[in-house]
Amino acid sequence: MEIWINPACSKCRSAVDLLDAEGAAYTVRRYLEDVPSRDEIRAVLERLGLEPWDITRTQEADAKELGLKEWPREAGSRERWIEALAAHPKLIQRPIITADDGTAVVGRTDEAVRDALGR
């Protein structure tokens, strides 16, 4: 199990605290420092069963500067979104937990983190 975190994020810290309390074995990836490649973003999207716009933090300054709210949310624009996430990792929703069964969750709630633990 791996968790993508920003240590400054309270949701990330809560998720890590819960994983620790449950005695889970996991690896921390500080994704702002160890930026995921486009291929890694594609892989995590597949594991999540989501599209890139589903995990994009559209209220971030970078998102506003790029005008992401106006970008089409369709298959033809998918790579453009992935490129933006790779170039601006702050835009990636957090934390993302990749479960041992090959799936993943966005662990913003205790329930989502527990869901990942149960996989």
Automatic annotation (TrEMBL):
GO terms for molecular function: arsenate reductase (glutaredoxin) activity. Gene3D superfamilies: Glutaredoxin. Keywords: Oxidoreductase. InterPro entries: Arsenate_reductase, Arsenate_reductase-like, Thioredoxin-like_sf. It comes from the Bacteria. The keyword Oxidoreductase applies. CDD domains: ArsC_ArsC (cd03034). Belongs to the ArsC family. This is Arsenate reductase family protein. It comes from Streptomyces finlayi. The lineage of its organism: Bacteria, Bacillati, Actinomycetota, Actinomycetes, Kitasatosporales.
